[in-house]
Amino acid sequence: MFEYCANPDTLSGLSWLSCYLTTGKHLSFYYSFGTVLILLAITAPVALAFGFGGAAMARSKATPARWFGKTYIAIVRGVPDIAFFMFFVIALDQGFEYLRHQVSCPDWDQPIRQGNDFIVCSAAKLPLSTSPQWVHEIYGFFLAVLTFAIVFGAFAANVIFGAMNAVPRAQIETAGAYGMTRRQTFWRIIVPQMWVYALPGLSNLWMVLIKATPLLFLLGVEDIVYWARELGGTKHQRFTDYPHGDWRMWYFLVLLVFYLGSTKVSEVVLDRLMRRLSRGQATAGGEALRRSAA
Amino acid sequence: MSCMQTIADYGLRSIGIGERLLPTTDFTLCQQFTLIGSGMIWNIYFGVFALAAGFLLATVVALGKASNNVWLRKPADWFIFLFRGSPLFIQFFFAYFLFLNLRSSIEFFEPFTVAWLGATIVLFLNTSAYAGEIFYGALQSIPKGESEAADAYGFSGISKFRKITWPTMMRLAWPAYTNEAIFLFHATTLVFFSGFPAWRQQGDALYYASYFADKTFNPFVPYPILAGYFIVLTLIVITLFGVINGRLNRHLPKESRPKIRYRPKILR
Question: Exposed, middle or buried: residue A96 (CB in 10 Å: 0-12, 13-18, 19+)?
Fold first, then answer.
């Protein structure tokens, strides 16, 4: 990075540290914080959409849709969610490959599960074995995002379903009295008003989502946990220009601080958002705002 | 090999009793049920010990946070923020490497780097923070009248806390605390996926489940088995805590007793 880093053996103190912290691997480490933030940025809206869909289905009049919605909400209860993360990644991967297999190799006559192996034709492999490394990485990341979205979508669905039911009954009855259809009531009355009821639950979920991001490591993505273990481990003179002892503790301390910081920032932002949404609402929070203004 | 034989071989495998080698080919359903069930021993062990010890510290933390003394309140606040604001996964990693470093200089820390002690300590501190926050919330919502009535009867200091405040606090906190207990049990599955290595392949239920999923490349058998075990464990916890809840609220008419509602809160 810096010019004086050309000969690391002669360095000491701060200049050593500045060179050490700007090696290529460390840059990858810093980028992986970006990976985590990208994951959050993509997963949160997708999970919210899944949750909204699930909640809307659970309220639906059509029985199959309602069952689907309710099952989806119920799915993640009672089981450690990490089990779902481990499960969905393999299951989704195999599901996609199976579908592609059905489409691209119709005349394949062997069974797909042969003993301990899961075999699809090479044209159905995901990603194709000929594709470059970055495709593999993107695909792994995509699977992780989808897994996060499915699991957190179920929790969001639970929150949103509760929030939709919390909209005062009188509001819905009034909408009916004004001649609105079910659909109109849903979009014009329930949806705009439910957010203030959903926000405490959703902010809790956001905190949980932040704290779930280190599980990316278990899903095989090269995230901050991966790099912290990689970089922190003891380095010998023979393999690196920057030998050091076991520093993993310090790397994980950095991660700990990173997560504490994100939690703190989120708390502040979500508090503001809650104040903003409570304005003019018929809730205790809204009432408190009205009183303090008056 | 009959199923009884498998149970005899692998039933206590997770604590090192029985067959040394894990099955490597021709996995039977019986093997998967037995080994994953054997791993549950660890989940129950971590959960029970962390909860039992955490209960006491949580009470202390809650009192500290509610205290008027800054020197008690600030540390309690920070303790809760530290353990609730960061992922348990990272806490495990950090604690493991911290103990490794300490071990290299002080002999005493030798057992701390092994899961049975090290992970239990992390879980203990973690659950203390979560439960401390719950207890603090309950402490804040103790009806004013009860405290005034206690004063009127001449209770004060320790005896007031022991006979009036604490039972009411427990009563109010219990439904939420039940959920905390359930999620603590779920959190125990993280132990062997974080820094703490599984010594001689003696791991918890998820460790064996993922072992089978890796070997068979079929997630559709071991994970549902694991899920089944955990649903049973969750039901047992709910039942046990429900009994205590009934006892805490025995002075109330049946219909006005607070119900324990299972609310998913997930990962920490």
Answer: middle
| B265: pLDDT strictly greater than 60 | no
- Contact flag A86-B88 (C-beta cutoff 8 Å): no
**Which domains does chain A possess?**
3-293 (1.10.3720.10)
What CA–CA distance (Å, rounded) separates A76 from A152? Answer: 9
Closest CA to A191 of A43, A53, A41, A42: A53
pLDDT (mean) for A287-294:
78
**pLDDT tens per residue across span B170-200:** 988 888 888 889 889 988 988 888 778 877 7
- Report yes or no: A156 and A149 within 8 Å, Cβ to Cβ: no
Partners of residue A213 in chain B, C-beta under 8 Å: 87
Q: How close A55 comes to chain B (CA, Å)?
A: 16
Q: What is the tens place of the pLDDT at every residue in B118-147?
A: 899 999 999 999 999 999 988 888 888 888
Which residues from A are below 8 Å from B186, CB to CB? 79-82
List pLDDT tens digits, range A185-233.
989 988 888 888 888 888 888 888 888 888 878 777 777 888 887 777 7
B184 neighbourhood in chain A, CB within 8 Å: none
The C-alpha R_g of chain B, in whole angstroms, comes to 22
pLDDT-based confidence at residue A117 (cuts at 50, 70, 90): low
CA A9 to CA B23: how far, in whole Å?
Answer: 50
Q: CB count, 10 Å around CB of B77? A: 15
* Inter-chain residue contact B94 with A252, CB threshold 8 Å: yes
Residue of A151, A203, A226, A256 to mutate when probing chain B, most B C-beta within 10 A? A256
- Between A16 and B239, whose confidence is greater? B239
- Enter the pTM of the model: 0.82
Where b means 16+ CB within 10 Å and e means fewer, B8-21 reads ebbbbbbeeebeee
Tell me which residue in A79, A232, A260 faces B230 most closely, judged by beta carbons.
A79
- Residue in chain B lying closest to A252 (CA): B94
CA atoms within 13 A on the CB side of A98: 10
Q: Pairing mode, if any, of strands A113-114 and A117-118?
A: antiparallel
Q: Which residue segments constitute the domains of chain B, with CATH numbers given? A: 3-9+25-256 (1.10.3720.10)
Which residues of chain A does B230 touch, with a Cβ-Cβ cutoff of 8 Å? 78-80, 83
Taken as a whole, chain B contains a residue count of 268
ipTM of the complex: 0.82
DSSP B45-71: HHHHHHHHHHHHHHHHHHHHHH-S-HH
Crossing angle, helix B166-187 and helix B29-66, to 10 degrees?
140
Query: Which residue blocks in chain A are alpha helix, DSSP H?
Result: 13-20, 24-59, 63-75, 81-104, 133-166, 169-177, 182-184, 191-212, 224-232, 248-278, 284-293
